[in-house]
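Input.
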Amino acid sequence: MPQRGAPARGGRGPSARRQRWEMVLGILGFFTVVAFVVTVVAEVRGEPALSEAIVLAGFVVLTYLAYRAWQRSD
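Output.
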């Protein structure tokens, strides 16, 4: 029986699944921050920012859903 934290057979154990979700969270978190900065810059410049705000909202929702899946993966 593998120790906790050790990779399971074929890398398909709970820790591998959790690590995949952590990677997804990192990628989504990065793009969420980028979308936030782009939205703020557009607002400060006085440009229409509806499309930027919609993209930001989408990234926030996806990040939240990935976070919930990461919590359940243990």
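The CA atoms of residues 41 and 47 lie 9 Å apart.
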